[in-house]
Amino acid sequence: MQINQYIDHTVLKPTTTLADIEKLCHEARTYRFAAVCVPPPFVKKSKELLQGSTVKTATVIGFPFGYSAIEAKLAEVLLALVDGADELDIVINLIALKNNDWTYLANEINHLFPIIKEKGKTIKIIIESGVLTDEEIIKCCELYGAAGIDYLKTSTGYAEHGASVHAVELFRRHLPEHVQIKASGGIRDYAFARQLIEAGATRLGCSAGVAIVKGEVSDTAY
């Protein structure tokens, strides 16, 4: 398995430095990862550092808690697109979900989706599966699958529970075939990464990408 092709090499800590980004992009080019995932202020620089490679630049919207207003997320999306982001990982409003306000969630995706797709960019929706019930996950699969997103993503990596094989399998059973799955959060070694891929994940968001490729164990996953 060429696991490097599945990896979004990631650094999203609030103390991220330019040196962190330079190292991340160098490693992404060296190991030919699918993408880097970086904080919004570093999108433009990452694009420059990755110029001439096949590595995509991804960033996050509404990260990590998802409860910023739709208008705020829209502003973040527009800036990310101006800066050249290829892929946008958007955290849903979990407060709306936990209060059973599915109308709000539908309105949120309906405002953000057309702008991103008009530019031909990839949209990944983060639902924080580790803090949801199976019923809530299934509802998310139905809502966002119908919306036509590119990926449903398990986690931000900042909740108490990250990616799980169970969540990925549940996603795969309830998502339309064309919607892919990104697993993220706590992926530190090759064995777990492979289990997630075998369960149906086609992308892995992790800061331990180099260790995973080498089949090593790392405690640095975000």
UniProtKB/TrEMBL annotation:
Kindly tell me the pathway this chain contributes to.
Carbohydrate degradation; 2-deoxy-D-ribose 1-phosphate degradation; D-glyceraldehyde 3-phosphate and acetaldehyde from 2-deoxy-alpha-D-ribose 1-phosphate: step 2/2
Pfam families reported for this sequence = DeoC (PF01791)
Q: Where is the active site?
A: 89, 153, 182
Database matches in InterPro entries: Aldolase_TIM (IPR013785), DeoC (IPR011343), DeoC/FbaB/LacD_aldolase (IPR002915), DeoC_typeI (IPR028581)
Q: GO molecular function terms here?
A: deoxyribose-phosphate aldolase activity
This protein's GO CC annotations: cytoplasm
Q: Where in the cell is it found?
A: Cytoplasm
Question: What EC number(s) are associated with this protein in UniProt?
Answer: 4.1.2.4
UniProt keywords (A-Z) are: Cytoplasm, Lyase, Schiff base
Q: What is its main location?
A: cytoplasm
A Gene Ontology annotation in the biological process aspect, one of them, is: 2-deoxyribose 1-phosphate catabolic process
| SUPFAM superfamilies per the UniProt record, alphabetical | Aldolase
Q: Does the keyword rRNA processing apply?
A: no
Instruction: Give me the reactions it catalyses.
Output: 2-deoxy-D-ribose 5-phosphate = D-glyceraldehyde 3-phosphate + acetaldehyde
Tell me which domain of life the UniProt entry assigns to the organism this sequence originates from. Bacteria
Per the entry, what this protein does is: Catalyzes a reversible aldol reaction between acetaldehyde and D-glyceraldehyde 3-phosphate to generate 2-deoxy-D-ribose 5-phosphate.
Family statement? Belongs to the DeoC/FbaB aldolase family. DeoC type 1 subfamily.
Name-wise, this protein is: Deoxyribose-phosphate aldolase
> Which species is the source of this protein?
Haoranjiania flava
